From TrEMBL:
Keyword Transmembrane helix recorded: no
Role description: PPIases accelerate the folding of proteins during protein synthesis.
Domain EF-hand: 482-517, 527-562
Name by which UniProt lists this protein: peptidylprolyl isomerase
Organism: Sinocyclocheilus grahami (Dianchi golden-line fish)
Catalyzed reaction equations: [protein]-peptidylproline (omega=180) = [protein]-peptidylproline (omega=0)
Gene: fkbp9
Amino acid sequence: MIRLTVQMILLAFLVTFVACNPPPLPLDDIVIEKTFTPDRCDRMVKSGDFVRYHYIGMFPDGKKFDSSYDRSTTYNVFVGQKQLIAGMDKALVGMCVNERWMIKIPPQLAYGKDGHGDNIPADSILHFDVLMLDIWNTEDKVQIKTYHKPESCGRTVQVSDYIRYHYNGTLLDGTLFDSSHTRMRTYDTYVGIGWLIAGMDQGLLEMCVGEKRIITLPPFLGYGENGDGSDIPAQASLVFDVVLLDLHNPKDEITVEVQSLPDHCPRKSVVGDFMRYHYNGSLLDGTFFDSSYSRNRTYDTYIGKGYVIAGMDQGLLGVCIGEHRRIVIPPHLAYGEEGTGTKIPGSAVLVFVVHIIDFHNPSDTVEITSVKPENCSNNTKRGDFVKYHYNATLMDGTYIGSTHTFGKTYDVVLGAGQVVIGMEQGLIGMCVGEKRKLVIPPHLAYGERGVDGEVPGSAVLVFDVELVDLEEGLPEGYMFVWNSDVTPNLFSEMDKNKDAQVDATEFSDYIFQQVKEGKGRLAPGFDPQRIIENMYDNQDRNKDGRITEDEFKLKADEAAAHDEL
């Protein structure tokens, strides 16, 4: 009984030992252990697909017999076409890119009783640690996934268009091989004429400016069996994350969109006009590059004469003062392939939103619109002293000034250079009570310099004028005239102290007395004392501060240059 018990204990121990350390059992089929599964699986391997994967080949005891990593190259092969051992052909079906499996293959689905060379003995169970990197099929086409599209898409990419775009280029497993962003420069190219790999030529068609899309290319539409020799391996699918920034065709002309027009447009711009306008300048994707508003100053230029880029020369023709328009200019009518070297890249389409402030032509004269009273007989002329009210603005309505603000008229002598030339011209021929609108070009106003802080350079001025009073002036060249015949004893009458000479006081008192008595007139609109001082100075030939009878002469006896008696 004791001997039987010992035998039973030894048998139980033996059973336990065998159960804890079982020998490798033969496999009837492949065994798959999924060691990593990605969150997304857009595509699974199917029979007939071409795959690229890394692997480590081991025996069940962990001893390595082969590895693609050691060769620094993936294993590239068609699945299900007997290019692999049967177990691997079967096991790879259903794998996703970036998925990792441990695949165990029995010998009858591997190298069987023959083994393989010196590395794999007969009847070996094989373990493969596989990482799937790429999947494609010979029937594949370019795959496009748009993940952002702008609300407005007036134009899409067509064959022979020239485009500028940014991209990130990756392999199907996400490995980055190139990026225009890292170079901080767009990729610029023609589309559909063979300047790009075939898949990209297809994938960029029909894109809008501002659109973002993922373009996935099989290798036969990418770099094929050879790769690019550096970052793109052979037989690699490519993924491009693209944003389109610019689009034009070499046959393009400018595009003009009128955004607003003034109610009244009596005149449109023509070649040779000088224009003042504000603008915002941007690239086609909306990137800002310049603005006249930021400088608080209009851009002033001749149009149609080559002073601005060709497209702007065209886009500013036929505009009205006050008009807003959007001008889209292709690069061959802008800054071309070189750009400006700073804010405007080469081959960039430009967008200008402009507001026309004013324009004129160097041949322009003063434009006069008049409303006359019923009785309008006495009209202004050179030399007249006039009083008038005005409101002054720029052509866009910007206020400049008004006499009404101060409650007093503006008083000038016409022809005396006391106002700008255009105003003098505009005031000639007016009668009291008449109202005029004067449009004065800058060459008859304040010219290229303008008036600091008040009138911009090269600005057209608009004056609404009302003539309030008119005092007839003296004949041209005279500052004093007699209203009656001149006394023959003029010198002696001036010489109050009878010392045979007339001093400044005697002269001044006498002239003022004649004016007071209505016997003579001083030129209106000037300082009377200054006029008399000038008259006296002209009579004092030797400049000794006294006038003798020999020096004294009337205007009629003088050469035309003198403005005295």
